[in-house]
C-alpha cells in the first residue's frame, strides 16, 4: 500500500488475532504452516497458547526464505509435524 506521499506501508490484518488481556496469550491461529511457530500449530486435543514471539519466528523463517529462495521444510509434507517436532531450521548455505 502507498500513502499519498508514495511511502510504502506493509499491511495484512487478515490473520491478526486478539491477545487475551488477562494472560497476554493468543488462543487462535491461522496461517501458512511453513511460517508458523511450533506453538501456534494446533495438535489434536491441545489448546493453543502463544504470544508475540511467534512473530519473531515468522520473521526468521522469512529471512531464511529470502536467503535460500524457499522456506525450511518446503519439500516435506506434512510440514506441521516437522515444525512441531524438529529442531529450529538453520541456513543451508555456507555463504551466509
From TrEMBL:
Pfam families listed in its UniProt record: Pkinase (PF00069)
Cross-referenced SUPFAM superfamilies: Protein kinase-like (PK-like)
Gene3D superfamilies: Transferase(Phosphotransferase) domain 1
Protein name: Serine/threonine-protein kinase svkA-like
Source organism: Xenopus laevis (African clawed frog)
UniProt GO molecular function: ATP binding; protein serine/threonine kinase activity
InterPro entries xref list: Kinase-like_dom_sf (IPR011009), Prot_kinase_dom (IPR000719), STE20_Ser/Thr_kinase (IPR050285)
GO cellular component: cytoplasm
Biological process per Gene Ontology, one example term: regulation of MAPK cascade
Domain Protein kinase: 1-96
Amino acid at each position: 500500500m502507498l500513502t499519498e506521499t508514495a511511502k510504502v506501508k506493509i499491511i495484512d490484518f487478515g490473520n491478526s488475532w486478539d491477545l487475551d488481556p488477562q494472560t497476554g496469550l493468543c488462543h487462535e491461529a491461522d496461517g501458512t504452516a511453513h511460517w508458523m511457530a511450533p506453538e501456534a500449530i494446533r495438535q489434536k486435543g491441545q489448546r493453543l497458547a502463544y504470544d508475540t514471539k511467534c512473530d519473531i519466528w515468522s520473521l526468521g523463517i522469512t529471512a531464511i526464505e529470502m536467503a535460500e529462495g524457499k522456506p525450511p521444510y518446503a519439500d516435506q509434507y506434512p510440514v506441521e509435524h516437522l515444525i512441531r517436532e524438529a529442531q529450529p531450521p538453520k541456513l543451508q548455505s555456507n555463504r551466509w
